[in-house]
Specification:
By secondary structure, the chain is of the alpha+beta class. Helices cover 42% and strands 27% of the residues. A 6-stranded antiparallel barrel has the order 1-8-11-10-9-12. Strands 5-4-2-7 form a 4-stranded antiparallel sheet, with no helix packed on it. The longest helix has 33 residues. The protein is rod-shaped, with a radius of gyration of 45 Å.
Length: 318
């Protein structure tokens, strides 16, 4: 009779032993990161923040020493002054003294032209009466034409001096001026890069350089976390992802805070193509199953602002 009672108990023992209990979904506390980099190389002159400090958008984090920018600023300013002078000279024309000189030249050539005109008119009458030779008349006529052309050329020179240089020269001078203005603006932009500014509200995680060290272009000087950007990341196999839906509300537990419960909402689900992205250290599912990344955001960001990054969080099954 005792053997009859032992047989059912043995089956019950092995059945309980073979029963696999489904493990909870484990994930990590994550925060959106932000990096402040340099655009212009320079030495670190001053660091105004410390690791762990919270800063607001627009706060100065680091000041760089860039002596090359100051040198280029002087060069650009000198080029601008020269270009402005060239442009003003092209548009305003000659100076007052130059105009006086040109007017005197025009007046002198006018007198020569009028005298040559009177001479040729007298010789024209004498030639008609055969009182002068044709050779004499031709020589005087050539002098008359020369005086006339010189007078007309002086008038044109005077007109150009009053109106400024030709249109093409003015356009060329204007282009040089605008180019110099662009160089000055470029230097001003580079000068602003001396100051590394917080792009938004953030907490400083690491400061990667010390005072006196060189920051090359594109170097990540400050790493930090964006404010109110905490989320929870889980890797879920396809045989369990069906219980979760985008927009559904879930309950999370934080083990290191005595299983503190946090309300969250599923916002994204996507398939992972690399095993290195798995957040749990001991996956207990078949390698043939596709793994999905599930992103959960808290309903109250203030409640999770002090959570430690990369700590364990458990997702309770819906």
């Amino acid at each position: 009779m005792k053997q009859l009672y032992l047989i059912p108990l043995a089956f019950l023992f092995f059945a309980c032993k073979n029963e696999v209990r489904e493990k909870p979904l484990e994930g990590k506390v994550e925060r959106e990161q932000i990096t402040v980099v340099t655009k212009v190389p320079g030495k670190v002159a001053e660091i105004r923040v410390q690791e762990g400090e919270f800063v607001h958008a627009g706060d100065t984090l680091v000041i760089l020493d860039i002596p090359e920018v100051d040198a280029k600023a002087e060069q650009a300013q000198g080029a601008l002054q020269s270009a402005e002078a060239q442009y003003n000279m092209a548009t305003k024309g000659a100076t007052r003294g130059q105009l006086v000189q040109l007017q005197a030249k025009v007046d002198g050539l006018k007198e020569q032209y009028e005298f040559a005109e009177k001479s040729i008119n007298r010789l024209k009458n004498l030639l008609r009466d055969s009182l002068v030779s044709q050779q004499k008349y031709d020589e005087t006529y050539a002098k008359y034409q020369g005086a006339k052309n010189q007078y007309l050329a002086a008038q044109a020179e005077m007109e150009e001096a009053r109106n400024g240089a030709r249109y093409e020269q003015q356009v060329m001078a204007l282009g040089q001026k605008e180019r110099a203005l662009g160089a000055v603006a470029e230097v001003k932009v580079a000068a602003r890069e001396k100051y590394l500014i917080a792009p938004q509200d953030m907490s400083v995680e690491t400061v990667n350089l010390n005072v006196g060290e060189l920051a090359t272009a594109g170097y990540a000087v400050i790493n930090g976390y964006i404010n109110n950007a905490t989320y929870f990341r889980f890797t879920v196999p396809e045989n369990r992802v069906g219980k979760l839906n985008r927009g559904s509300e879930v309950i999370l537990r934080v083990p290191y805070l005595d299983n503190k419960e946090i309300k969250g909402r599923v916002v994204a689900m996507k398939a992972l193509s690399s095993y290195a992205n798995i957040s749990t250290a001991y996956p207990d599912y078949d390698n043939q199953l596709t793994v999905f990344e599930v992103k959960v955001v808290p309903q109250d960001h203030a409640e999770v602002s002090d959570l430690l990054t990369k700590t364990l969080v458990v997702l309770q099954a819906p």
